[in-house]
Design a protein that fits this description.
- This protein folds into two domains: about 10-170, no CATH class; about 185-395, Intergrase catalytic core (hpI Integrase, Chain A).
- It is about 45% helix and about 5% strand.
- The protein contains 14 helices and three strands.
- The protein has a three-stranded antiparallel sheet.
- The longest helix is centred in the first third of the chain and has 22 residues, at about 65-85.
- It is globular.
- Pfam families: Phage_integrase.
- InterPro entries: CB, DNA_brk_join_enz, Integrase-like_cat_sf, Integrase_catalytic, Integrase_recombinase_N, Tyrosine_recombinase_XerCD.
Length: about 400
């Protein structure tokens, strides 16, 4: 596809943004001579302009697709804003410019240049109507964007590309007390979600597979406490069995999570039984083979390729939407709780699992390790007795309790 080069502002009345990989900047906007550039003798990276410097920073996150996409988005937005809105390169931005940008994030104007038209939330990056924003950012998202950009500027300064970090002058705010998790389902709402899935239609083969998939996704997100990206990025062969010190077989699920860190999640008897149930629905042997590459969540038809996080999100939004309608059917007094379900997402199940584990007085150390909240120590391979205790406690106190066997 032909590139859409950005022309200098004085030669184009309303230039439109292009994704980083398609961006071509005039020399005056490239940052080759940015006013905040460090002396060439101090530079420790090969980048000669802002696009190359940003690419060098992003390359550090190539092993984490989700982090890379988030960081690229924020760097891309700022660079495009700098050249299109201010007419200056990223490496010439001042502290005052960044204060202006902070306000811009809360209301990207002119909207025709910056925001996707209509109700569309996403377009392919090569589409001519692509825009960097789907709408104004909430205060929390603005803060997160600035945190990411501060990391970018700090790294470029440390690398000797920039003379200083313009965001380092920002007013230091006292760190707020860590908020309690609120995006989770109460035990009653969780039962409603399970009842909704158990009542899904199964008249046709497609309906049976869809109902089985919804039940399995709900199960693995809840019993495993997994992130959506961990579900879509894990294969069936990640389940394995080993014997404990007493000779009992224990199943585990090996998951690679945030920061490319690997952890072992207890695969309880319930989880293994649900895995077997799900595989039988697809005509597969109940137990996966070692190294099996089938994705953890199978498509209804077609090749056995992994679902995207977006597809998994849509599955869960459908389930929560049906559960919300189930509550609304009880009467108007259920509207508030139905609204909670309607706003839930796949990540709510991770919070729900953690909350329910705590309610059942599962040792918080085990919850921490199940969820991968702390890095795995180099000695963890020797702590089999501690891991077995974690497995036993998780199996005893954390259950999904499906009432339907069919």
């Amino acid at each position: 596809m032909e590139l859409r080069p950005i022309k200098p502002l004085d030669s184009l009345a309303t230039p439109l943004p292009s994704p980083l990989e398609r961006l071509r900047l005039a020399p005056a906007l490239s940052g080759a001579a940015g006013s905040n550039r460090a002396p060439a003798s101090a530079t420790r990276i090969a980048a000669a302009d802002d696009l190359a410097a940003v690419a060098a920073w992003l390359a550090r996150y190539a092993d984490s697709a989700a982090t890379l996409a988030t960081y690229r988005r924020e760097a891309e937005r700022l660079l495009l804003w700098a050249v299109l809105q201010l007419g200056k390169p990223l490496s010439s931005l001042t502290h005052e410019d960044l204060l202006t940008y902070e306000r811009f994030l809360a209301d990207p104007q002119p909207a025709a240049r910056w925001v996707l038209a209509g109700s569309r939330k996403k377009l392919a990056r090569g589409h001519p109507d692509w825009r960097p924003f789907a709408g104004a950012l909430a205060p929390r998202s603005v803060r997160q964007a600035l945190v990411i950009l501060n990391a970018l500027f700090a790294w470029l300064t440390e690398a000797g590309y920039l003379a200083g970090n313009p965001l380092a002058l920002a007013r230091r705010r006292r760190a707020p007390a860590k908020a309690r998790i609120t995006r989770y389902l109460s035990h009653a709402l969780w039962e409603t979600v399970k009842d909704t899935v158990a009542a899904m239609p199964t008249d046709t083969a497609r309906e049976r597979l869809h109902a089985a998939r919804c039940r399995w996704v709900l199960t693995v997100l809840y019993l495993g406490g997994l992130r959506a990206a961990e579900v879509t990025g894990t294969a069936m062969g990640a389940f394995f069995c080993r014997r404990d010190a007493q000779g009992a077989e224990r199943w585990w699920l090996e998951v690679t999570g945030k920061g490319n860190k690997t952890r072992l999640v207890p695969a309880t008897d319930e989880l293994i039984a649900e895995l077997a149930r799900y595989r039988r629905a697809h005509g597969l042997a109940p137990t996966p083979q070692h190294g099996e590459t089938r994705p953890l969540v199978l498509p209804l038809i077609g090749r056995e390729k992994p679902l995207s996080r977006g597809a998994l999100h849509l599955i869960m939004k459908e389930v929560f939407g049906m559960a919300a309608e189930r509550l609304r059917a009880r009467g108007p007094e259920w509207e508030a709780q139905a609204g909670v379900l309607a706003s839930a997402s796949a990540h709510w199940l991770r919070h729900t699992a953690g909350s329910h584990m705590s309610d059942q007085q599962l040792d918080l150390r085990y919850v921490r390790d199940n969820f991968g909240h702390a890095s795995i120590s180099t000695t963890s391979g020797y702590l089999h007795s501690e891991e077995d205790a974690r497995h036993e406690a998780t199996q005893e106190r954390h259950r999904i309790g499906w009432t339907s066997e069919s």
